[in-house]
Amino acid sequence: MSSDARATGEEPAEQEAIAALVAASPSLASCLHGIERAAASDSPVLLLGEGGTGRSALARALHRASPRRAGPLVEVDPGVVPPTLFEGELFGFAAGAFTGAERPSEGRVGRARGGTLVLDHVEELPLEAQPKLLRLVAERRYAPLGGRERAADVRFVALGAADLAQRVAHGAFRDDLYYRLDVLAFRLPPLRERRGDLEPICAFLLADLARRFGRPLPRLGERARRWMTDYAWPGNLRQVRNVLERALILAAGEELDPEPPEGAGEPRPRPLREVEREHVVRALAYARGHQARAAAILGISRKALWEKRRRLGIP
Fold first, then answer.
1. What CATH number is given for 272-312 in this structure?
2. What are residue 313's phi and psi, to 5 degrees?
3. Phi, psi of 217 (to 5 degrees)
4. Rounded to an integer, what distance in angstroms lies between the CA atom of residue 129 and that of residue 284?
5. How far apart, in Å, are the Cα atoms of 22 and each of 32, 198, 229, 239?
6. Which fold, 194-256?
7. Torsion of the alpha carbons at 81, 87, 91 and 92, rounded to the nearest 10
8. Interior/surface letters 110-126, b for 16+ CB within 10 angstroms, e for the rest
9. Is 162 exposed, middle or buried (0-12, 13-18, 19+ CB in 10 A)?
10. Are β-strands 115-119 and 150-151 bridged in parallel, bridged antiparallel, or unpaired?
11. Which of 20, 28, 72, 91 is least surrounded by CB atoms within 10 angstroms?
12. What is the pTM of this model?
């Protein structure tokens, strides 16, 4: 969706309430309830996570749950604006401020007046622009290029990469700006860390897609359920939605059988603890319970075997 649509206050169908997001992602319930409480304040919010984890959808839901819901929702992405043009795009400019500036521009901050300004991919913010953004967030004041200083009546929501703290440590992002944005920070884990959410997420997305395309509510076939559960989903929720949308468009009936992405047919590696426990149990069985013999088979000491049995819960 374009930033212009957000600025006009339009509410597209994908802007779901936080309660609906909780229903779609049960494992995030405590995090989402925290975000719902944070929505009532006017403090900055920082949403961290990989691409496709739902940061943008959550920012829209946060805006709708806030006292600023009647105001505009405006997004700016420094990753898609040339660094030399970013300050003018964010803060606006007066007529004649630079060559080609024939008409003034209020910028994204001005367009977000009374509402919410979403700073997407905040880790891509040019270093030279970060001090001005810090003042904007901390003091709610800014000056358009070639213009007079003015107050900023906006609420800030920043969307950042999961490793934003590491970027701060390496000097790629100002620590004072990070700490100012970090007032209310929430991390959205990737889908591979919350596989139990996959089924309700699919149900949520299929219902939304069916409404959009005017189709009966589809269901996933058994083969799709199997590979989708085992797949790591590197593109997270965005990839799930794309797979389901393509399957719905191409489906002849109400059962969807999407083709798995490359590598999806490979079995998901088992947890190391599970493999280790099974191996120790097999060694003990082979040694008929003889501790020293089982330890020799495993290539460890008797003490190390005893510690493994205690840690792994092996009687």
1. 1.10.10
2. 70, 35
3. -60, 115
4. 63
5. 7, 13, 20, 20
6. Helicase, Ruva Protein; domain 3 (1.10.8)
7. -80
8. bbbbebbbbbbbbbbbe
9. middle
10. unpaired
11. 20
12. 0.73
Q: What is the pLDDT along the chain (315 residues), one digit of tens a residue?
A: 334 433 333 333 333 456 667 777 888 888 888 888 899 999 999 999 999 988 998 999 999 999 999 999 999 999 888 888 888 889 988 887 787 777 888 899 999 999 999 999 999 998 888 999 999 999 999 988 888 889 999 999 999 999 999 999 988 899 999 999 998 999 999 998 888 889 999 999 999 999 999 999 999 999 999 899 889 899 999 999 999 999 999 888 888 999 888 766 555 566 788 778 888 888 887 888 888 888 888 889 988 888 888 888 887
Report residue 197 as tokens.
Answer: 């959410």
Say if strands 45-49 and 141-142 run parallel, antiparallel, or are unpaired. Answer: unpaired
Element (H, E) at 76: strand 73-76
Distance CA 217, CA 226 (A): 20
Tell me which amino acid residue 26 is: P
Q: Tokens in use for 207?
A: 């219902």
Each domain of the chain, given as residue ranges in start order, spans 3-189, 194-256, 272-312
